[in-house]
Design a protein that fits this description.
Layout lengths: L1 E8 L6 E8 L3 E6 L6 H9 L6 E6 L2 E5 L4 E2 L7 E4 L11 H10 L10 H8 L14 H14 L4 E5 L7 H17 L3 E6 L2 H7 L2 E6 L2 E7 H5 L13 E12 L4 E6 L2 E6 L8 E7 L3 E4 L10 E12 L5 E8 L2 E8 H7 L6 E6 L7 E3 L1
Parallel strand pairs: 3-9, 3-10, 7-8, 8-9
Antiparallel strand pairs: 1-2, 1-4, 4-5, 5-6, 10-11, 12-13, 12-15, 13-14, 15-21, 16-20, 17-18, 17-20, 18-19
Helix pairs in contact: 2-4, 3-4, 4-5
C-alpha cells in the first residue's frame, strides 16, 4: 500500500498543497483534476524530486519520506519508475539500447520482468534497432514505459503520459497500458485530466482541486456521485462492470450481463465471458413510466428512482436509478420531473440506446 500525506506552499501567497490519500498495493490509482490543481506536484514529491515542507510517503510500511522523523530517501533510492509526457529517450541509442539502460539501472537483487517479457508486453519487437527519431509518439512512449519497467521499480509513476499525443496515438497506446495494469503486479500512480484514461485504466480515483483531495475511492463509486465536480461535465455518468454473455453476429449485437440486468451493445470483439467496464452517460438515459412500444431503443430496463439530485444547471436534475446492485444516473429536465410527477420510490423504465456504449474497456 502507498500512503501519501503532503503539505507544501510555493512562496508567500503561492500555490498551496495539502493532500492525503492511500493507494492499493497493485493496480492503477488515478490522480484526476484540472491543470494546475497539484497532481504533478504530488507525483514529484512521491518520486523524491520535490522536498515538501511537511509530509509522509510510505510504501508497504517503509517510509520514503517522513519530515517529522527527518527521513527523506534520495530519489535514486526510492525505486520509482517515472514516465513523463515526453518520452525522454536517449537519442543516440537504439530502442534496444534504451531498454538495456533501464535494465542496468535495476538493483542486482530486484525481481521483475526480463527484457523479452517487456518487449512482448509492449509489442515493440519490430522497433528494437530503430533510433527514437524514427518512432511515432506512441511508440516512443511505449519504449519509455519499457525502460521504466526494466528498472524493476517498486512503484510506477506516470505523469500524463498520453497528453502530448494526438487521438490516434492515444488509442494506440491505451491497450498496452491496460495490459500493464493487468500484468505488472505493482502499484501505479497515474496523473491525468482525461476522463477517457480514467475509464480505461483506473482502479482507484483521487479527485484533486486546488491542491486538496475532494474524494478518493473506487472509480465506479466516485463516478456515480452527483456531489463531485465530475457531475458538472456533460459526459458525466457511471462506470458499469459487465460480462460478455453472447454475440449475435447476424444482428450485429453483443449481450452483456451486469448486477441488475442485461444490456445490448453493437458487436464487440471481446471473448465470451470477458469482463468489461463501460461508461453510461447520464445524458444517454431516458425514463418512461410504462414500457414503450414500437421504438428503436433496445435496452428498456425496470428501475426504481432512489433519489433526485440537483445538477450544475438550474433547469436539470439527476435521477439516481436503482437496478438491483447497480445504480445508474439519468440527466433530465426540470420540466420532465414535474410533468411526469417523478419522485423517489417510483418505478420507471430506463431507456438506453445500444449505440450509446461507444467505449467498452477491459475490466
Amino acid at each position: 500500500m502507498l500512503e501519501v500525506s503532503l503539505r507544501h506552499r510555493f512562496g508567500p501567497g503561492g500555490f498551496a498543497l495539502d493532500a492525503a490519500f492511500t493507494a492499493a498495493g497493485r493496480g492503477v490509482t488515478a490522480l484526476f483534476g484540472t491543470s494546475g490543481c497539484g497532481k504533478s506536484t504530488i507525483l514529484n514529491a512521491v518520486a523524491g524530486l520535490l522536498q515538501p515542507e511537511a509530509g509522509r510517503v510510505a510504501l508497504d510500511g517503509e517510509a520514503l519520506l517522513d519530515t517529522a522523523r527527518g527521513i527523506a530517501v534520495p530519489a535514486e533510492r526510492r525505486r520509482c519508475g517515472l514516465v513523463f509526457q515526453e518520452a525522454r529517450l536517449f537519442p543516440h541509442l537504439s530502442v534496444l539500447g534504451n531498454l538495456r539502460y533501464g535494465l542496468r539501472r535495476a538493483p542486482r537483487d530486484a525481481q521483475g520482468p526480463g527484457l523479452d517479457e517487456v518487449v512482448s508486453l509492449l509489442g515493440i519487437e519490430g522497433l528494437l534497432e530503430r533510433r527514437p527519431a524514427r518512432l511515432s509518439g506512441g511508440e516512443r512512449q511505449r519504449v519509455a514505459l519499457g525502460r521504466a519497467l526494466l528498472m524493476r521499480p517498486r512503484l510506477l509513476l506516470m505523469d500524463e503520459p498520453l497528453a502530448a499525443l494526438d487521438a490516434p496515438r492515444r488509442a494506440e497506446i491505451l491497450p498496452f497500458l491496460a495490459r500493464l495494469r493487468a500484468e505488472a503486479g505493482l502499484p501505479i500512480l497515474y496523473v491525468t485530466h482525461a476522463l477517457e484514461e480514467v475509464d480505461a485504466l483506473a482502479d482507484q480515483l483521487v479527485l484533486i482541486e486546488a491542491g486538496r483531495v475532494l474524494a478518493s475511492g473506487g472509480v465506479e463509486e466516485l463516478t456515480a456521485r452527483t456531489d463531485l465536480p465530475l457531475a458538472a461535465r456533460r459526459d458525466a455518468g457511471v462506470l458499469i462492470p459487465v460480462r460478455v454473455l453472447a454475440h449475435d453476429a447476424a444482428r450485429g449485437l453483443t449481450r452483456l450481463g451486469f448486477a441488475g440486468g442485461e444490456l445490448l451493445m453493437p458487436l464487440h470483439p471481446a471473448a465470451l465471458g470477458s469482463a468489461l467496464r463501460l461508461r453510461l452517460r447520464a445524458r444517454d438515459v431516458a425514463v418512461a413510466l410504462a414500457p414503450p412500444q414500437g421504438i428503436s431503443v433496445q435496452n428498456i430496463l425496470p428501475a426504481t428512482i432512489s433519489a433526485i439530485r440537483p445538477s450544475a444547471s438550474p433547469h436539470e436534475f439527476f435521477l439516481e436509478l436503482a437496478m438491483g446492485e447497480t445504480r445508474l444516473l439519468a440527466r433530465v429536465t426540470r420540466d420532465a420531473v414535474e410533468r411526469l410527477g417523478l419522485a423517489p420510490g417510483i418505478t420507471v423504465h430506463a431507456l438506453v440506446k445500444s449505440v450509446a456504449f461507444d467505449q467498452a474497456r477491459p475490466a
